[in-house]
Design a protein that fits this description.
By secondary structure, the chain is an alpha+beta fold. It is elongated. A hairpin with a 5-residue loop joins strand 4 (about 65-70) and strand 5 (about 75-80). It has one helix spanning about 1-25, and strands spanning about 30-35, 40, 45-55, 65-70, 75-80, 95-100, 105-115, 120-130. The N and C termini lie far apart (about 90 Å). It has one domain: Immunoglobulin-like (Sandwich). It has 1 helix and 8 strands. The longest helix is centred in the first third of the chain and has 22 residues, at about 1-25. The chain is about 15% helix and about 45% strand. A 5-stranded mixed β-sheet has the order 2-8-7-4-5, with no helix packed on it. A 3-stranded antiparallel β-sheet has the order 1-3-6, with no helix packed on it.
Length: about 140
């Protein structure tokens, strides 16, 4: 009888250890998707951008990041983080949006970077074509 009790104790201890390991599973970081609307326009063009976290878990590293947009035209904008301190289970923001106006024709490489305490966490870029509109004498990228 004592050996059955010992065996049951060992089984319960092992089950508890494996349950604890499951609780501490490795969280998966989401991917970052960047899109513009429209992707093709005539200058001057006001373009709407969306950067969105896809999949993965709500990891602390992505809670309240600084968001930097590089426009490919020499301009840059930064939205600094201003959030309450992280608490377990706090939801992360998954969508970041902004507008930017491109004055001249060109092919622009737009990049968004999410940062936390000065460290780049995720970034994504896209190519955007702006064709010459009325009065724009810059070279048309389609020529």
């Amino acid at each position: 009888m004592p050996s059955r009790t010992l065996a049951a104790f060992v089984i319960l201890a092992l089950a508890g250890a494996s349950a604890g390991a499951d609780d501490k599973k490795k969280l998966k970081k989401p991917g970052l998707e960047l899109r513009s609307s429209p992707r093709f326009a005539f200058s001057p063009a006001n373009i709407f951008f969306t950067a969105e976290l896809k999949g993965g878990d709500d990891v602390e590293e992505l809670y309240c990041p600084e968001v930097e947009w590089e426009w490919g035209d020499g301009g840059k904008s930064v939205k600094e983080a201003d959030c309450d301190p992280w608490t377990e289970g706090a939801p992360i923001e998954r969508r970041f949006t902004t507008n930017h106006t491109f004055q001249f024709a060109g092919i622009y490489r737009v990049k968004v970077t999410l940062r936390k305490t000065g460290k780049n966490i995720l970034s994504q870029s896209l190519a955007l074509t702006i064709r010459a509109g009325l009065g724009d004498t810059s070279p048309d990228p389609g020529d």
